[in-house]
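## tool: complex_structure
## caller: assistant
## args:
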Amino acid sequence: MSTAHAHGGHHHPFHAHHFETLPQQEASARMGMWLFLGQELLFFSAVFVAFFVFQYMYPEGFLEAHRTLSIPLGTLNTLVLLTSSLTMALAVRNAQLGDNKGVVKQLGFTIALATVFMIVKYFEYSGKIEKGQLPGQWYTYEGLPEGASIFFTMYFVMTGLHGLHIVIGIGVLAWILIRATKNQFSAEYYAPVENVGLYWHLVDLIWIFLFPFLYLIE
Amino acid sequence: MSADSNHNQGHGEHHVMPLSTYFAVFGALLVLTGITVLVSFLKLGLLVAVVIASIKAALVVGYFMHLKYDDRFYSVILLSSLFAIFCFFLFVFLDFTSRGMVVPEEETNFLRNERAMIERLEQEEAAAAAAAEEEEEEEAEEDTGG
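## result:
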């Protein structure tokens, strides 16, 4: 395109001038993404550790409070998120094959499923807000042992941070969906789809651990 | 385009998996989710749930995130992050489970029992106060009635 570049001949429009080759650019982008994901795991591990420490301190409160969560709704959201991971993976596959229409379709499914996830979360949250099962000083629910309020604090912190990642995910998914409608991806250049996919799978991974720890384990 | 082939990230860069792999992994994830929910009703505890979640995570990372076919360098990044998390959990866990041996006053069970006791006393006090109030009300009603 318009960029002056040492190499002559064919030049990909999304090949930035400070990278030797397009594959080098893609590998750098993926390395950056994996470093970011490694950091995300460390970040989430802190709230998991906090959760286990409080659970150790207040076993009865955590047990009774966890029993108030809806396993059907949690399972539904798990299935929704796993399915969205499949459609995301298929979107990346379509991008690898240079099928931009397929990318748009699968990303559409992924965004729709992410929205379903947030709608289910909305119903779960509003139920808890009505009952006063809120963090810290806003906790007004009665009839659970000591420590239950800390359980709900951790519940809102963990699912809230995860939900924030879903919302940001919907934003970046929409961004690459728009790029795919402009036919910008090809077998040669699909790093943005791949990296947004990696991010989306990480959000799914976090939920794979959040779900049993919050909803299932007695 | 002379440097092209040299800079390619080995065997993994453009590996396209067959569709059947995606659906097989998805099926396995659904089955494992079903198992972990059913098992939770049997109350088998932490270990089973963690093992199932780890298998699910490995499937997502290996296939959906392509780590199985990608350059090993990305696996190293992930594993170093997991190692740091392992250390984090290990030392916090060691601290919490052994603190009572060193400083008995900081034993978390102790703290918990103490707080539970304070709460019970407060509840008893409140109940006593409520009972006293009720008695007063009854007396007042008797007064107005008589």
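## assistant note: Residues 22-57 of chain A form the longest helix (36 residues). DSSP finds six helices and no strands in chain A. Handing back to user.
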